[in-house]
Amino acid sequence: MRYDTKIAIVVRDDLATWQKLNVASFLAGGLVGTAPELAGEPYQDGSGRFYGPLIRQPVLIFAASAAELTNALQRTQQRGVRPHLYTKELFATGNDIDNRAAVATVATDALDLVGLGLHAERKEIDKIIKGLKLHG
Fold first, then answer.
1. CB atoms within 10 A of CB 102
2. What is the model's pLDDT at position 2?
3. The pLDDT of residue 1 is above 90
4. 93, 105 in Cβ contact below 8 A?
């Protein structure tokens, strides 16, 4: 099935594995939080037990340098796409209130980005992530 939209998560390539997984998880959750239609239907196994829904379409995860993340953020602004972000400072906080406070103290061009979550029309995402490679 081909979707009209695309989900892309861009994670900085110099992070520890646990950090990459953490960033991707937080960003995916944020995407579904602002676009509930991304959640599919609950699952049921052959024994009749129910499980929670998953995101209904593929999530592509890309690796990027700090500079490439900054470029991607600039492209989102130029294209009117609202990104979800994760900055390096958020590894030192422990809750959403402190996370938002940490981001609020830094100007856009000084953000130490470690991840971006994106959901928009396919062509818009393709232009934002142009040149990035899928995470390996």
1. 16
2. 87
3. no
4. no
Instruction: Pick the closest to residue 82 from 45, 125, 49 (CA basis).
Output: 125
Smallest CA-to-CA distance from 15 within 103, 87, 102 is with 87
Task: Give the separation between CA 76 and CA 130, rounded to whole angstroms.
Answer: 12
Q: Any idea which residue has 């991707």 for tokens?
A: 24
For tokens 């099935």, what's the residue?
1
The 10s digit of each residue's pLDDT in 59-105 is 999 999 999 999 999 999 999 999 999 999 999 998 999 999 999 99
What is the DSSP secondary-structure string of 67-107? HHHHHHHHHHHHHT---EEEEGGGGG--SHHHHHHHHHTS-
pTM of the model: 0.93
Strands 59-64 and 5-12 come out as: parallel
What value, to the nearest 5°, has the Cα angle with vertex 132 and ends 77 and 31?
A: 55
The first and second tokens of residue 71, run together, are 């470029």
- Residue 122 has φ and ψ, to the nearest 5°, of -50, -50
